[in-house]
Amino acid sequence: MDIETVDKFLKEFKDKARVFGIIFRIDRKKNIQALLDLEISAIMREKIIMSLTVEDYYKGPTEDKLNYMGELWKFGKSVDKKEVYIKISKGTGGDAALCHEKQSFEFRKDNFEIVYHFYRCKDTNEEFTTTELDQLNMNQVYNLYRQKYAIPFPDEIKRVRELYGISALRMSKLLGFGDNQYRKYEEGETPSVSNGKMISALKDPHFFLEILKLAQNQFPNDEILKIEKRVKELLLNNSCFENKINEFIFHNHLSLRSSMNGYASVIPEKVKQIIVFFASALQGVFETKLNKLLFYSDFLSYKKYGKGISGLQYQAISYGPVPVRYSTIYENLDGLKKEIINLGNGYSGSIITTVEQFEQSLFTVEELEVLQCVLAHFEKSKANEISEMSHAEEAWRQNEKQHSLIDYSYAFDLRQL
What we know:
Elements: H1 3-20, E1 23-24, H2 28-38, H3 42-50, E2 57-63, E3 71-79, E4 82-88, E5 96-107, E6 110-121, E7 127-130, H4 131-149, H5 154-164, H6 168-175, H7 181-186, H8 193-201, H9 205-214, H10 221-237, H11 241-250, H12 268-281, E8 285-286, H13 287-305, E9 314-317, E10 320-323, H14 326-332, E11 336-344, E12 347-354, H15 365-378, H16 383-390, H17 394-397
Antiparallel strand pairs: 1-7, 2-3, 3-4, 5-6, 6-7, 8-12, 9-10, 11-12
Helix pairs in contact: 3-4, 9-10, 13-15, 13-16
């Protein structure tokens, strides 16, 4: 095959991919298992495909005898010193339905069952995935692995470092990791069990001081003194009044991550800012409606990314899904005001207001998009209307009778969003 023809195909393929995205056919389970084995993300896979050049050409075009969706071109690429073969075509179009089913995948010699998401073509019944769906599927596997071995999540890993005010490079050096390893963990790479436990142990300032003493010859003396000062300040603040208040407000919510809290941890300021977001945008929000806005925000985030936002647990009560001890949260977080409003005919309601400005720096781009989506969808809905909508959700229907806590896996069956 001449270079000009291969170059033309790649250009046409990439142009189409930039507009319509890439779908992944053939053997969908084999595709995601390969990503787990290589320990690369679905996003990285797409970057690898979009970086293909004529030098990577291997074979083709050949007939797609499995899916009959056009010609197949084969390319080879070295990924982490392993030769990977990539088959691509420009494909065709067609309507598809989003489906999900239970599937098991292996990661680091452990098997994990997840709710596997894929599309099915309405015309051909062909099944395929996208980068976004594969990342969601992989995130579920990683969540279960981290939960099983008590490995901290990326945001926790970042907070541990920021707690002591040092760079990712310095933290890697302190722990004896490779220069960029700590940063990679912050960006989503899953640590080994031993490295994960080491990072978790660093949450204790006493343990951190011991590690710092062992590495004191690796850093300038003035830097050691600066870090030691920071650690001693943390030890003094650990018993401060604010920490006691937060412990009182959120003590019913799990500290360990699981599917019951969306694999997110409760950060009091972040929880407050979610409430500030809705209370400011709506110029005050009734407590009943706020409960549902929080529920839909967390569960939509889990549906899209395999992770909640607030880390709150939810319970199914008569009026729909609500955060556990929601009244305690609303009444005790600084910057929020709870007022009783007379609604007439002997009825009253609680409204939450705030004068604080929303601090969006605490949230990822994806989390902000979820909050905006929930606001746009329910902005005009009254409290009783959104409550009725929540009663149609399996998350409430399957748990209301016993007033049970709600597993975030019900997010995959959300009807409203």
